[in-house]
Amino acid sequence: MRMTDLIAVKRDGGELTTEQIDFMIQAYTRGEIPDYQMSAMCMAILLRGMNDRETLDMTMSMMHSGEVMDLSRIKGLKADKHSTGGVGDKTSLVLCPMAAACGLKIAKMSGRGLGHTGGTLDKLESFPGFQVGISEERFFENVNKTGLAIIGQTADLVPADKKLYALRDVTGTVPSVPLIVSSIMSKKLASGADILVLDVKCGSGAFMKTVEEARELARGLTRIGRLAQRRCAAVITDMDQPLGWAVGNALEVKEALAVLRGEQEGDLLELCLTLGGLMLTEAGLAEDMAGAREQLLAAVREGRALKKLAELVEAQGGDSRAVYDPSLLPQAPVVLPVPAERAGTVSRIEAEKVGLVSMHLGGGRVDKESVIDLSVGVVLAKKLGDRVEPGESLAEIHAPSEEKAEEAAQLLRQCFSFSDTPVTRPAFIKDIVR
């Protein structure tokens, strides 16, 4: 086979065969196809698209470009969750303990934050001593014992995606839905879970800006999941403002703990109940979403979900006392309220810019080598639709110094817009795709 012939097929709107796709992916992973030819193919896919069979073939070839996790040593149904990324997204810290407390096994591989989005591994490392790099043997042992383990992705998992993603990022081909679907699903299928729920975010702080774009992606993800013989469902959620109230690693952990203690309701809890409900119904552990929600809420009320998080932290070398005493988590030396300068109703909070404020404080990475400050970030006091008076706090800045706090306060004020008339808060959950 010649790569030039394959490029021409896709350029002219044709279909690539299973054999052609596998040749292309495996040869590119081995370095036998140069970047300039794969760039041309990615652009052809962006412009011409792929059907479900081609997308599935590409997903499976990428999945088999490296290590595939065999979770058969873990007893019971294994579930996993993926988010397309957002600001203040601490969902895994709440959802995974809730689901494990209801009888599911959560064998999860997560990533680190880069830029304005946070990473689950960084948040978990807010617990002193927490280890994300435990051995595979210990990973399986922990899931069998406690029902829950969260680790970093291994270097050998889906190497094709690492190469392709870096290439797409610099060639203007990131927005292609078949390429996004194969990127996400190859990693999730290689991780080995039986059940996969997907949080597809839309809005100003998300990659998909409209509900229509998010729905197209959600349908593509769930179709490929089902074709790959996985139980799969997706939720489309709002990211026109940060999820929950806190943005920043230890601050988000504190918020997650408040939800698990039953002290906080709102969009974060609602998202976890919806994703968890899909997990339990797909697993056959609940007849319907109403019954699943009640199981999850009971796990919170009875303290079982919080206990599961403590077990996770302890099993991976962390100080589980911080689960019950958040004062043991990293604390920023400076906390500065940001007062409103005018009266009005909050009409807009630019989620991505709020994430960049946290990054400016040291809570995010400019590149993979950056060292982050786990203690810093922003805690919102007002959200869309809330009334605010002059001098009333919009948020708190948690900063390493007074100077950084003042700079962040000025940046944060620019994230808020106000209206003189009432503002209706948009629906948080836009759709469920099964």
Structural commentary:
By secondary structure, the chain is α/β, with parallel strands linked by helices. The chain has 3 domains: 47 residues, Transferase, Pyrimidine Nucleoside Phosphorylase, Chain C (Transferase, Pyrimidine Nucleoside Phosphorylase, Chain A, domain 3, Up-down Bundle); 247 residues, Nucleoside phosphorylase/phosphoribosyltransferase catalytic domain (Pyrimidine Nucleoside Phosphorylase, Chain A, domain 2, 3-Layer(aba) Sandwich); 90 residues, Aldehyde Oxidoreductase, domain 3 (Alpha-Beta Complex), CATH 3.90.1170.30. Helices cover 46% and strands 16% of the residues. The protein has 17 helices and 13 strands. The strands form 3 sheets. It has a 6-stranded mixed β-sheet with strand order 3-2-1-4-5-13, sandwiched between helices. Strands 6-9-11-7 form a 4-stranded antiparallel β-sheet, sandwiched between helices. α5 packs across α12. The mean pLDDT is 95.
Q: Which consecutive residue ranges, at least 5 long each, have pLDDT under 50? A: none
Q: Kindly, what is the distance between the CA atoms of the first and last residues, rounded to a whole number of angstroms?
A: 38 Å
User: H/E element string?
Assistant: HHHHEHEHHEHHEHEEHHHHHEEHEEEHEE
Q: Which fold name is given in CATH as the topology of the largest domain?
A: Pyrimidine Nucleoside Phosphorylase, Chain A, domain 2
Q: So what's the CATH class of the largest domain?
A: Alpha Beta
Report the principal-axis shape. Answer: globular
CATH-level-2 architecture of the largest domain: 3-Layer(aba) Sandwich
Percent range for β-strand residues: 15-25%
- What structural class should be given to the helix and strand makeup? alpha/beta
| Total helical elements | 17
Give the neighbour order of strands across the main sheet: 3-2-1-4-5-13
| Helix share bin | 40-55%
- Total discrete domains: 3
Average pLDDT metric:
95
| Rg (CA only) | 22 Å
Instruction: Please outline the major beta sheet.
Output: 6 strands, mixed
Give me the count of strands: 13
**What is the CATH H-level superfamily of the largest domain?**
Nucleoside phosphorylase/phosphoribosyltransferase catalytic domain
